[in-house]
Amino acid sequence: VCGKNGAAITCSEKACDHNFHLPCAVEGCCVTQYYLQYRSFCCDHHPEQSAQVVPEANTNCIICMEPVEDQRSYSTMVCPVCKSAWFHRGCIQGTALHAGVGYFKCPLCREVIQFRNEMFHMGIRIPTR
């Protein structure tokens, strides 16, 4: 990602030789899954969201109220349950860090289990506090 030496994180995809530093992962659209095996994926192999929808024109992030991209991407995410709550990766990450695993849910439909599982899979870090 940054081109400097000492990158210790390797992509979990077999036969992929991409390495990156953990702090550089977000810049390079890498995903680190903070559960079970703590796997990391480079920008070429990171997981995609299960919901196959795209945002309507002029859709805003439900958290910061700023516009989201007009397509699903690394930085634009959607709730897999209601498929109406669109948000930036950074915004939902901040929400997860503040809420913790006990209170983290979709900001719109309030679904917990499927939403939380999808966010874990997509590399959103949700603390257990």
From TrEMBL:
<dbReference type="InterPro" id="IPR011011">
    <property type="entry name" value="Znf_FYVE_PHD"/>
</dbReference>
<dbReference type="GO" id="GO:0008270">
    <property type="term" value="F:zinc ion binding"/>
</dbReference>
<dbReference type="InterPro" id="IPR034732">
    <property type="entry name" value="EPHD"/>
</dbReference>
<keyword id="KW-0863">Zinc-finger</keyword>
<keyword id="KW-0862">Zinc</keyword>
<feature type="domain" description="RING-type">
    <location>
        <begin position="61"/>
        <end position="110"/>
    </location>
</feature>
<dbReference type="GO" id="GO:0005634">
    <property type="term" value="C:nucleus"/>
</dbReference>
<dbReference type="InterPro" id="IPR051188">
    <property type="entry name" value="PHD-type_Zinc_Finger"/>
</dbReference>
<dbReference type="Pfam" id="PF13639">
    <property type="entry name" value="zf-RING_2"/>
</dbReference>
<protein>
    <submittedName>
        <fullName>G2E3 ligase</fullName>
    </submittedName>
</protein>
<dbReference type="GO" id="GO:0016874">
    <property type="term" value="F:ligase activity"/>
</dbReference>
<keyword id="KW-0436">Ligase</keyword>
<feature type="domain" description="PHD-type">
    <location>
        <begin position="1"/>
        <end position="46"/>
    </location>
</feature>
<keyword id="KW-0479">Metal-binding</keyword>
<dbReference type="InterPro" id="IPR001841">
    <property type="entry name" value="Znf_RING"/>
</dbReference>
<dbReference type="InterPro" id="IPR019786">
    <property type="entry name" value="Zinc_finger_PHD-type_CS"/>
</dbReference>
<dbReference type="InterPro" id="IPR013083">
    <property type="entry name" value="Znf_RING/FYVE/PHD"/>
</dbReference>
